[in-house]
Write a structure and sequence with these properties.
Order of helices and strands: EHEHEHEHHHEHEHEEEEHEH
Bound molecules: guanine
CATH class of the largest domain: Alpha Beta
Shape: globular
CATH architecture of the largest domain: 3-Layer(aba) Sandwich
Distance between the termini: 48 Å
Radius of gyration: 19 Å
Number of helices: 10
CATH topology of the largest domain: Rossmann fold
Number of domains: 2
Length: about 280
């Protein structure tokens, strides 16, 4: 039997409805959720991501402020903007889109964002809180993956979870979140020997590498849950994930499509984190 689809589009739509309702209640109380999105330079992919984030905010009834800065903006200028946003009470969340131009130090910029407004969850304080099991903000993509697993009813206790890709944005926080739900986690990276053997053990396989179709059906344990975080554009313009969908679907028990899988959940969890920031300020 082919795998069942986990539709991020459908799950995201239902969560966004709840978020919009909560945003309306908060707005009624005089606390409209506010998100500032900062884009430096002209990276085409970043422009699309940022546009989608701002549109999702507006649709949910948030105040959404977009700051577009030219590629030659100095780091001092960017830090000054972040500082202003840190002190703006109408802004609950600040997102500086990555990657930044090469003359900037992303680490310093992220550290300049007030940790209680760091809705990306990238600040070292938030990474540390996540690591110690007391997260303030969970990074949006791994948070979205966890939500998909929860809503699909996947039991993670004692499950073998394998994460491919050890980035700060996805792989590392994903491993922590799976661990906190009782999974036995293996975090694979580009030096991992015999990746296939690791994958074949996985009850839950999360792939976040950025390489088109690198995980194929023969690498997947029959019945496994396969979560594809990759979004790659092929030379013919088609979008595809890091998992070869057709061969994987024949073996897996559950699988996320690309597009329409993890992508819509990432933006949804950005909205969720912003709501959480408002509620934390009120509590
Ligand atoms: N670039 C790619 N993904 C992300 C993300 O989740 N947040 C930010 N700020 N930049 C990104």
């Amino acid at each position: 039997m082919p795998a069942q689809l986990i539709s991020g589009t459908e799950l995201a739509a239902s969560i966004r409805e709840q978020i919009a309702r909560r945003a309306a209640e908060l707005t009624e109380l005089g606390h409209q959720p506010g998100l500032a999105v900062v884009l430096v330079g002209e990276d085409p992919a970043s422009q699309v991501y940022v546009r989608n984030k701002v549109a999702a905010c507006e649709k949910a009834g948030f105040k959404s402020i977009m700051h577009r800065l030219p590629a030659n903006t100095t780091q001092t200028e960017l830090l000054a903007l972040v500082n202003t946003l840190n002190h703006d009470d109408t802004i609950h969340g600040i997102l500086v889109q990555l990657p930044l131009p090469s003359h900037m130090d992303s680490h310093s910029v992220i550290e300049a964002i007030a940790a209680h407004k760091d809705v990306d969850g990238f600040h070292v304080s938030n990474a540390g809180l996540l690591m110690t099991g007391k997260p303030l903000f969970r990074p949006c993509t791994p948070y979205g993956v966890m939500k998909m697993l929860e809503l699909t009813g996947i039991n993670l206790r004692g499950a073998e979870a394998v994460v491919i890709g050890a980035s700060n944005i996805v792989g590392k926080p994903q491993a922590m979140l799976l661990l906190q739900q009782g999974a036995t986690v293996t975090l694979c990276n580009s030096k991992t020997k015999d990746l296939k053997a690791h994958c074949q053990r996985a009850d839950v396989l999360v792939v976040a590498v950025g390489r088109p179709n690198m995980v194929t059906g023969d690498m997947i344990k029959p019945g496994a849950v396969v979560i594809d975080v990759g979004i790659n554009r092929l030379p013919n313009g088609q979008l595809c994930g890091d998992v070869d969908f057709e061969s994987a679907k024949a073996v897996a028990g559950w699988i996320t499509p690309v597009p329409g899988g993890v992508g819509p959940m990432t933006i949804t969890m950005l909205l969720q984190n912003t709501i959480e920031a408002v509620e934390r300020r009120l509590s």
